[in-house]
Amino acid sequence: MKKSDIGVVAIIYALIIAFFIPTLSFPSEAQIYPLIVMAILTLLNTLYLINCLMKYFKDKKIERDLSEIFEGFQPKQFLIVLVLCIVYVFLISLLGFYIATFLYMLGTMIFLKVPKKHVILTVVCFMALVYGTFTMFLRVPLPTGIFM
Amino acid sequence: MATEIVNGFINALTPINILAMFLSTAGGIIIGAMPGLSAAMGVALLIPLTFGMPASTGLIVLGGMYCGAIFGGSISAILIHTPGTPASAATAIDGYQLTLKGKAGKALGTAVISSGIGGLLSCISVYFFAPPLAKLAMAFGSPEYFWLSLFGLTIIAGVSTDSILKGLMSGAFGLLLACIGMDPMNGVMRYTFGSASLYSGLPFTATLIGLFSMSQVLVLAEKKIRKQGNMVDFDDRVMLSKKEFKRISPTIIRSWLIGNIIGILPGAGASIASFLGYNEARQFSKHKEEFGHGSIEGIAGSEAANNAVTGGSLIPTLTLGIPGESVTAVMMGGLLIQGMQPGPDLFNKYADVTYTFFAGFVLVQIVMTVLGLFGARWFAKVSRLSDSILIPCIFALSVVGSYAIRNNLFDVLVMFLFGIVGYFVKKFDLNPAAIVLALILGPTGESGLRRSLALSGGDPRVLFSSFVCIVLILLCIFGIFSPIVMKKFEKQALGEDAKADSKA
């Protein structure tokens, strides 16, 4: 039995409960299908749990496979990239798409130690590509931010 | 049908479509050549772009990306022994050996020609098998559609994951997500938490981009950044001689048949086809001793087979709405946002669009061959791009792509959330393609089930009342157990290839 399997089974059960509670407030006709799906998911998850338990009783050990799954994981780099992505998404509504994208790309590439020449080239090419495709060709009204 | 085929070619040969073919195929080759980026990710990122295009051009673009990426995987397989996509794993065995001997050009030339011919021949089956299969779907009523949606899910659930149970769990989780939004029968809001943006369900394109593209950003960010790839420069001829072409021709024909049949069978995929194609090439070769040491027949066997899958896999996707692998599941999303449903309508109501797409798919194979033969050196250079540049570019494209469909920032948040979900789904070996397919098939299944029950006054026997229903139930059972058989095939082929590789 793998340690990651325990997590997967627990998360799936938690998700079923999270969906089950609001389902009780639906009119009976609208409840049927989600309840069937939840029953199927519960059955599959339980079968998976039984499968894992059988392996556990056979081998008498829990395999600590998380280090294997996250082998070579760079926590600092991963978290900073993730935070930069989150900040970017929030900056879009504040500064508009183009300014936020410019800052995000600049920040991420500087953090990831991309040479300056490549940073400038990438940002310019990317912005031109997005402007040409989404603004000129598809005429998508990209967010302009609160200052425009 | 002949008129429709000819008209399809006339429509596909407009300047804008030709430009679309060149750009999307080139983009696909670059994405396929970059280790870590997949064809499904490329297609997911392109879907928002195709939304603003005429339907036929949009579908040609997706087809170009698909075929280009499957071929592109062979570039890094040959030059750095790292397959860009799993479908090129068998190519790496002999391709890299040729590179070590200073014959990288010849290896790439073999891969290009075999991929092009394999893909081109696979288009024949699309013309022959797709229309009659679509007609079959006309006989389907609500109960049949319910079982068909279940069949589609059982098929995809077994693909790409080691555990069939995990695949099925992913599908069931996707079905639960598909319940979000307005109830299809009586308009009750389910799990929307008062958000108007969720009334019509989870935004499909944003969810798709999150699961396949944004998640890839996190996968790239978690590991030590891959700086510029160290691909070797090569200066030998890419073009094959007449003698070499004659030598690989029977292998290409064999691999085309293998790839085409595997493609039509939902549940198998390009990686299985390439290993089977490689094995058969070795089986029939007069130069068995070259295998594992740089055989052009080995490369041809693998590459013709994996590209022959592309045409074959379109058949169940377009006719019955059951894509057999992740790329076609994502492509089906592209079809749906154009307002087109797989099935008979594609060959009647939207026949002009469908046949233009088919013709475009044929032409894409030619474009891919031309680009591969004349641009292999250039593509090899571009695919050296470092992950530190790819990370912000893919994420920014994911943001603008998910926003562009409904001009709604909420969709960007959904994309972000599903990016994180997709990251953990990949990490814990669940199946993102099954989740996406469940999102597509969920509403069809629910409507089918509830309409059947409403018409029969709540009697569930209606679900077992027709011959087609019984066949579909049997197919569902087959769908659950077929991955076990397929995995045996794959393991067998892998075992033999490992032997060949270790000998080398």
Task: Tell me what the structure shows.
The complex is a heterodimer of chains A (148) and B (504). By secondary structure, chain A is an all-alpha fold. Chain A has helices at residues 3-23, 28-59, 66-69, 75-95, 97-111, 116-137. Chain A contains six helices and no strands. Chain A is flat. The model of chain B has no long low-confidence stretch (mean pLDDT 85). In chain B, helix 7 crosses helix 8 (164-178). By secondary structure, chain B is mostly helical. The longest helix of chain B is centred in the C-terminal third of the chain and has 37 residues, at 467-503. Helix content of chain B is 73%, strand content 1%. A two-stranded antiparallel ribbon of chain B has the order 1-2. Chains A and B meet through helix 1, helix 2, helix 4, helix 5 and helix 6 of A and helix 8, helix 9, helix 15, helix 16 and helix 17 of B.
Short description:
The complex is a heterodimer of chains A (148) and B (504). Chain A is mainly alpha-helical and 148 residues long.
C-alpha termini separation of chain B: 50 Å
Order of helices and strands of chain B: HHHHHHHHEEHHHHHHHHHH
Strand-pairing-aware structural class of chain A:
mainly alpha
Apparent shape of chain B: globular
**SSE sequence of chain A, one letter per element:** HHHHHH
Helicity range of chain A: over 70%
Mean pLDDT of chain A: 91
C-alpha end-to-end distance of chain A: 57 Å
Quaternary state of this entry equals heterodimer
Query: Describe the biggest sheet of chain A?
Result: none
What percent strand of chain B?
Answer: under 5%
Which structural class do the helices and strands of chain B define? mainly alpha
Biggest interface, chains and residues, is: A-B, 63 and 51 residues
Strand order of the largest sheet of chain B: 1-2
Largest sheet of chain B: 2 strands, antiparallel
Uncertain segments of chain A of ≥5 residues (pLDDT<50)? none
Average pLDDT for all residues of chain B: 85
Rounded Rg of chain B? 22 Å
Beta-strand fraction estimate of chain A? under 5%
Q: What is Rg of chain A? A: 24 Å
